Amino acid sequence: MGSRRDYYKDPNAPKANSLVPGGSALVADDHGAILMQRRGDSGNWSLPGGIMEIGETLEQCVIRETKEETGLDIEITGLLGIYTDPEHVIEYADCEIRQEFAITYYGKAIGGSIRVSDESTAVRFLSLDELTELPVHPTVRLRLQHHSEQRSVPYLG
Asked: CB of 146 within 8 A of CB of 154?
């Protein structure tokens, strides 16, 4: 299916050997639809995001990754939550086994135009109702649920 495999609450998951700070953006349009990309490696719909590079802040990382993956320029407007579940590990072809460490920011589109990157097969704004019928990893569903709850404070987990 690709060069990565997600394990979530799986007792047979390999033991993590890496922890890498990453981030994603939850960007809603004026109608409440969420900016999503369909991952080329898993086929799941996901929020745009990626891992931090040396010399940038996590906020800069999320802005850069969103531009690279969706074509849209965003500004960060808030914090949805911190997601560091040790029961979510990702195994890569190079033998890295990464424990989830992701911070999801709220973002607002301020420019650019939607385009598909080499990491995805589709990019579009989808309603929460549409997303219930589409393949979405449980950890991304958790973020979408937290968004739909309109929490007054960020999720810390």
From this structure: no
